[in-house]
Amino acid sequence: GDPGLVARARDNALHNHVQNAEFHSANLYGALGAEPWLHQRFDKALLDPPRSGAQEVLEHLSGLGVRRLVYVSCNPATLARDAGILVQLGYRLVSAGVMDMFPHTAHVESIALFERAAA
């Protein structure tokens, strides 16, 4: 939900000549129907939601055509909840890991890769 970070990602992609990626921010608690990206198709997606997770947007993934999803989470409990939802939506957990990006705190980042079989 941070437009500044999304702009930075866009700039970084341009700097590195990445032309096949798009970056969007959205308020996951607001109405998503007006979001322009909701009417496009993506075969891959990266979700890095707030501590509360991404439950509100998960139902839209298959409609967007997302077959591979990298989910980055700072809250293992909401990642577990959302993983259960993703499995119900036809995704499977391929791999997962933990990265200690903030060694001076007790917080870790969990990273999970999900794939969905072709319809």
Poorly predicted runs of 5 or more residues: none
Strand residue content = 15-25%
Specify the biggest β-sheet.
4 strands, mixed
Categorize the overall geometry. globular
Number of distinct beta strands: 4
Radius of gyration: 15 Å
Q: Name the strands of the widest sheet in spatial order.
A: 1-2-4-3
Instruction: Indicate the mean pLDDT.
Output: 88
Query: What gap, in angstroms, lies between the N and C termini?
Result: 30 Å
What is the chain-wise order of helices and strands?
HEHHEHEE
Structural class per helix/strand content? Answer: alpha+beta
Helix content: 25-40%
Continuous helix count: 4
Tell me what the structure shows.
The chain has four helices and four strands. The chain has helices spanning 3-15, 55-58, 61-64, 76-88, and strands at 44-47, 68-73, 91-99, 109-116. The protein has a four-stranded mixed sheet, with helices on one face. The termini are far apart.
Defining key terms:
4 helices, alpha+beta, 119 residues, 4-stranded mixed sheet, 23% strand, 29% helix
Helix/strand layout:
Layout (H helix, E strand, L loop, with lengths): L2 H13 L28 E4 L7 H4 L2 H4 L3 E6 L2 H13 L2 E9 L9 E8 L3
Parallel strand pairs: 1-2
Antiparallel strand pairs: 2-4, 3-4
Short description:
By secondary structure, the protein is of the alpha+beta class. Helices cover 29% and strands 23% of the residues.
